[in-house]
Amino acid sequence: MLKKNKIMDCVIIGSGPAGYTAAIYAARADLHPVLFVGMQPGGQLTSTTKVDNYPGFYEGISGNELMENCKKQAERFNTIIIHKTITKVYFSDKKGGIHRVYMKKNEENIESKGIIIATGSSPKFLGLDEEKKFLGLGVSFCATCDGFFHKGKDVAIIGGGDTALEEASFLSKICRNVYLVVRKNYFRASKALQYRISKINNVNIFFCSQITKIMGNDFLEGIQILNTKNKISRTILISGLFIAIGHSPNTKLFKNQLNLDERGYIIVKKGSTSTNKPGVFAAGDVQDPTYRQAITSAGTGCMAALDLEKYLCFC
Ligand code: FAD
Questions:
Q1: For the segment 45-101, what is each residue's pLDDT rounded down to a tens digit?
Q2: Which one from 145, 175, 285, 288 is the annotated catalytic residue?
Q3: Domain-embedded: residue 305
Q4: Are strands 11-13 and 115-117 parallel, antiparallel or unpaired?
Q5: Residue 148 is part of a domain; what is its CATH number?
Q6: Ligand 1 pocket at CB < 6 A
Q7: Using CA atoms, how far apart are residues 63 and 75, in angstroms rounded to an integer?
Q8: How far, in Å, from the CA of 36 to the mean position of ligand 1?
């Protein structure tokens, strides 16, 4: 139970792999963490069917089950889990200062010496009908996570930046044909990546193209592509569609409080989870534009709890 007016040691914002891992470590270090679940309990993994690359689950595990297990583990060590969303924050500039998080604008709030931000990121959708229906049933945001399910099959990727080309390169080694759908008539990716892609035989590139339809019954079966220059439409039969048009870190709340990079990710000190405010740490996708995996999020969640524990020792 949360006691009124008590200053906490550890408040965690977010209930994805980073948040729950931070909670498990913080609770076992007697920091009595309070974790805010937010609008997506369990985080991004709850929108996928099977997670096959999280160590320890050799047959794979459903995203929901994995996150439910994480929640139970955090509860086992008496983490206080609050099913609310943080709407405003005030972070102190002073070492040992007290931070405040609000659950309703200017009303209900909790004070804490330490904060762990694990609000994750949200993948950008194309905005097409059926896109969400086939999420986890052929539509994916992560080739590293889901590429293996399409071994020897045909897949498509939409996007023209570094991520899309990295995904295409990765998938070309597993899949039969990779169709790369690019909205513009050029890539935004680095020259080195463009060169690498141009040397791969099974990557077929469609510039000036957009996906107009996603088709299938129980699983994704194909897409319709429109060439925006000559207005010719074509259908491609694929088992997987990888959307690589970017992610948005969930950092709106921290805009005027923390240093963010040009894409909005929280900047942390190299090799740690420290932000520019003493006692405020960031873990998971919210500070990671590169790896964006459940295991790396869990890893940095652990780091954040250890960093906070150390910080509190010196305050
Ligand atoms: P998230 O999982 O993004 O969780 C963020 C949490 O913050 C949520 O609980 C949300 O409610 C909460 N939150 C946000 N704002 C607030 C607020 N204001 N107040 C309170 N709470 C808030 N990775 C893999 O390793 N393997 C896979 O197979 C895999 N499959 C994926 C499939 C899909 C469809 C997607 C979208 C991602 C997949 N990923 C996979 C990536 C993985 O899900 C993420 O890397 C990971 O979930 C990031 O964890 P996180 O804890 O940083 O944040």
A1: 998 878 999 999 999 999 999 999 999 999 999 999 999 999 999 999 999 999 999
A2: 145
A3: yes
A4: parallel
A5: 3.50.50.60
A6: 13-19, 36-40, 43-45, 47-48, 51, 53, 85-86, 118-121, 123, 135, 141-142, 145, 250, 253, 284-286, 292-295, 297
A7: 18
A8: 14
Query: Cα(95)–Cα(309) distance, rounded to whole angstroms?
Result: 14
Give the model confidence (pLDDT) of 253-273 as tens digits: 999 999 999 999 999 999 999
Q: Do residues 285 and 291 make contact, with C-beta atoms less than 8 angstroms apart? A: no
Q: In the structure encoding, which two tokens stand for residue 66, read together?
A: 């994995």
Domain span including residue 184: 125-243
208 is catalytic: no
Mind listing the pLDDT tens digit for each residue in 112-165? Answer: 999 999 999 998 999 998 999 999 899 999 998 899 999 999 999 999 998 899
Q: Give yes or no: residues 111 and 254 share one domain.
A: yes
Q: Does residue 158 share a domain with residue 223?
A: yes
How far, in Å, CA of 21 to CA of 27, rounded? 10
94 found inside a domain: yes
The minimum-distance atom of ligand 1 relative to the CA of 41 is 9
Residue 201 and residue 115 in one domain: no
Please check whether residues 143 and 216 belong to one and the same domain.
Answer: yes
